[in-house]
Every structure is written in C-alpha cells, then in structure tokens.
Amino acid sequence: MTLKADSKWVADYGENSCRLIRTYGKSDDQTVLMIEQYSPSADFDWTVAGPPLARTRWSKDVTVQWGPEFNQFEKTFLKAELGKFGPAFIGRGWELGQPVVSKVKERDLRELGRAELASGLDPVLGGLDPDRAARVQYLSFWQSDRLAITLQLEDMGAAVAALNKCTLDLAQGWGFDETYQDRLTTTPVWLNVREIAADIQRHYPSKALMRGAQANFKVRIIVDSEGKAERCDWINNTQADDFEMKRTPCDIIMADARFEPAMDEEGEPIRSIYQTSILYRMP
User: Fold this and answer.
1) 3-state DSSP call for residue 15?
2) At how many degrees (to 10) do helices 193-202 and 249-256 cross?
3) Higher pLDDT residue, 142 or 117?
4) Cα 91 from chain centre
5) Residues in CB range of 250: below 8 A, 6 or more apart
6) What are the Cα distances from residue 223, in Å, to 13, 164, 208, 232, 266?
7) Could you give the CA distance from residue 138 to residue 152 in angstroms, rounded to a whole number?
8) How far is the C-alpha of 162 from the C-alpha of 21, rounded, in Å?
9) How far apart (Å, rounded) are the C-alpha atoms in residues 277 and 167?
10) Residue 26 has what DSSP assignment?
C-alpha cells in the first residue's frame, strides 16, 4: 500500500518542542506522520499512526526504511495508540542507532580523556542534514505478509531546515547563542543516572500502576558549568492519562542529579544541554 500526502508539511512550534506533521488519506481513514525535536540535535523522534497499522503483529520485528538515502533496519514496536488515528509506531532517527552506554565508575571519570567521556550522547546544538533529508523520498514498513506500507515524502530538505531553525530558536531562548556548538567539545556526562532512575521508578504514579498504564516522556536538562541541573523540562510525548505525580522526574533531577559538565575548546567547563527519555513500563 502506497499512501500519498493530502497535505503539505504543517509546522507546530511549541514552547518545549518543534514538530512537523503531514497527513495521508481522508479524514475518516487518515494516517499521520509526525517528526519532533526538543532541542537542536542530529537526531529526532517520529510517530506514524493510522488504520493501516492495525495489521501489525506487535511481538515481531518490522522492517523500516527512510529511503532510498538511509539503510533499512529491524524494530519491534511497543503497541501504542495516538488518539483518533489509532495504532502507532514510535521511533527515533533515520536509522537504528546503537548508543554507547558508559560503564565507567564515577571515581574513574576524571582520569579519562574528554573524548571518552562524551561517547554515546547526542551532539548538542547540532542539527539534521537538509541535504541528506532532501534525498529521502519515502518511509516504508514491512512485516512478512501482514504489513506493507509506504508513505511518499516530498520537500524533506526544506522541512528539516525549518525544524533546525525552530530548535535553534528554542535554544537561544534558554541563553545559548549560535556560536555555542562550535565552542563545545564534549557533552555532559550524567554521573548518578542509575540512582536517579531507581528513585523515579519508585515514584511510578499509583493510578497508572493500578491501570497498567505506560508512557514515554522526554526530559531536557540545562546543566550548569558546575555539573548541576539548572533547569529541567519534562515533556509527555505519548499523551498518557493518569500520570499525575506528587514528585515528578524533574523534581528528582533538580534535587539530586550530578553531572560531569561539558567542556569548551579551551578545556573549561561550560553550560550545556542534556536530553534523554524516561519510559514508564510495567514489570
């Protein structure tokens, strides 16, 4: 099944994120594609939702490709819904990334070189490549004989350029100028992430726990030059219900998170942006 867009890209620029939206099909049987960023980055989140995804076998891999520019990859999607559109795939980036997870003990961190400290994290105040995006013509999903969907894409280069501008504008509102990405040589390293994650899990909302509700959240942290959380934005990107919390992840992060600060080209600590996902999942 090949779907042609029935709208141009619609830009939704909010206080905490920048989003591009495109729809396919009639209003009573519509599929939607959303591309979203929460700060300037060489990566992005995407969601595709609509009736054609109802045939998905959620326990099996789906083949995905932003083609022909990027390689196809296999992904098992968690079963999700997006309002009136119905079943949804939620993914990240053009290709399947393999982030590097640091296993270095805190006491050893200051013994390492700066390049080692920075491994596995998003470039801060980077951006998507509009030239490569312009060569993306479709987004396809396959799953054996159950699923074969292709969304035709147009004007991806211009859409990505607009997204880059929007996220840079966001960052400037937080006090980062356009020269910041050239001065930054390493990203911040979260020193006590396991301790904070355990504390967040202990505060799983009771109503959500009783209902078996799950959710995805984005957390964007401004880290000061001393490695402390200066600001934390907690963004629900699944529109989950019953996730009212007495103590939110940002409350915990602001109180207790510790970072190895980012460095500039002269080896001096520098204010920076750190972003990550928090997934609430039932055991």
Assistant:
1) coil
2) 140
3) 142
4) 8
5) 219, 232, 233, 234
6) 24, 22, 30, 9, 18
7) 5
8) 12
9) 18
10) -
114: how many CB neighbours lie within 10 A of its CB? 14
Q: Token digits for 237?
A: 């990107």
Cα(182)–Cα(185) distance, integer angstroms? 8
**What confidence tier does 31 reach under pLDDT thresholds 50, 70, 90?**
very high
Give me 108's structure tokens.
């050893």
Q: How confident is the model at residue 103 (pLDDT cuts 50, 70, 90)?
A: very low
Give me the numbers of helices (H) and strands (E) for the chain, helices first please: 7, 19
For residues 46 and 13, give the distance between their C-alpha atoms in angstroms, rounded to a whole number: 15
Fill in the amino acid letter for 184. Answer: L
SS (H, E, C) 160-209: HHHHHHHHHHHHHHCCCCCCHHHHEEECCEECCHHHHHHHHHHCCCHHHH
At a CB cut-off of 8 Å and minimum separation 6, what does 154 contact?
5
DSSP string, 199-243: HHHHT--HHHHHHT--EEEEEEEEE-TTS-EEEEEEEESS--SS-
Gap between the Cα atoms of 280 and 202, Å rounded: 11
CA atoms within 13 A on the CB side of 56: 28
Rg (CA), the chain: 20
If DSSP codes are grouped into helix, strand and coil, which group holds residue 246?
coil
Do residues 253 and 191 lie in contact, with contact meaning Cβ atoms separated by under 8 Å?
A: no
- Higher-pLDDT residue of 86 and 103 is 86
